[in-house]
């Protein structure tokens, strides 16, 4: 059984890729960076701080920051600088220390935002063309546990139905019940 949540561009393969959500990134940083900062010009704010990058296969390290610079009308903004991290989690964790700007989807870090460890200094969004996909092999869908878990994840992240999916504990209990039969 092989099932995974993958961060990727849309693609066609022999596997099944169910879109959970498309990433909408924004600038996230520690509230410490806002103390006394001039936020009237996002480009100046970006230029004044270290940029935190995340490795993306086949892309230059500054790929998303370059897209953001173009989207705010500043393709000349120097974005090929700063630290590079293997994961979004590490980049944002570093940002909470007050040492840089992360470009990330706030859905992934809602707890840090609610707790006040991260803030969004500007209402600037980047539809980066990447998303989170539930990926599995077609033959694995015949396994009831995989099919049930897949259905739950799709319902959990779709938001389109207006109906809340059952709690994961309920799904887990159903999987155990079906396995015992």
Key traits:
6 helices; 181 residues; alpha/beta; 31% helix; D-Maltodextrin-Binding Protein, domain 2; six-stranded mixed beta sheet
Explain what this protein looks like in three dimensions:
This protein is α/β, with parallel strands linked by helices. The protein folds into two domains: 22-131, Periplasmic binding protein-like II (D-Maltodextrin-Binding Protein, domain 2); 143-181, no CATH class. 31% of the residues lie in helices and 23% in strands. It is built from six helices and six strands. It has helices at residues 42-47, 63-71, 88-96, 110-114, 144-158, 168-180, and strands at residues 3-8, 16-28, 51-54, 83-85, 101-104, 126-136. It has a six-stranded mixed beta sheet with strand order 1-6-2-5-3-4. Helix 2 links the parallel strand 3 (51-54) and strand 4. Helix 5 runs antiparallel to helix 6 (168-180). The longest helix is centred in the last third of the chain and has 15 residues, at 144-158. It is elongated. The model has no long low-confidence stretch (mean pLDDT 87).
- Under CATH at level 1, the class of the largest domain stands as Alpha Beta
CATH architecture of the largest domain: 3-Layer(aba) Sandwich
> Strand arrangement, largest sheet?
1-6-2-5-3-4
Rounded to the nearest angstrom, the radius of gyration is 19 Å
Distance between the termini: 20 Å
What's the CATH H-level superfamily name of the largest domain?
Answer: Periplasmic binding protein-like II
| CATH topology group of the largest domain | D-Maltodextrin-Binding Protein, domain 2
Structural class assignment: alpha/beta
